[in-house]
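chain below, 104 aa
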Amino acid sequence: MEELAFTMQLKPGVVAEYQRRHDEIWPELTAALHEAGIRDYSIFLDAASGRLFGVQKRLPGHTADALPGLPVMQRWWAYMADLMDTNADNSPVVTTLTRVFHQE
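prediction:
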């Protein structure tokens, strides 16, 4: 399984709302992520900085690269844009991280 780690940035004072929206994640978005081959997805928060750390585990042959073109993904980005740093298309500004150590 492929593993991808990345960071995103919340705006100040929005942690509770970010958590609430994810607690109520849309079933159609969950289904789209699953259909794209994402089998494990976690987001962690550094409360001091508002920095989010995401980890996705993806099946071989996943289609996660097609997610930005889905209407449900575009609606989610628009819904979340007021809470985080975003690009012009409302997608979150993402910094991909490089693994430097792993132990099983």
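The mean pLDDT is 97. The two ends are 14 Å apart (CA to CA).
thats it, cya
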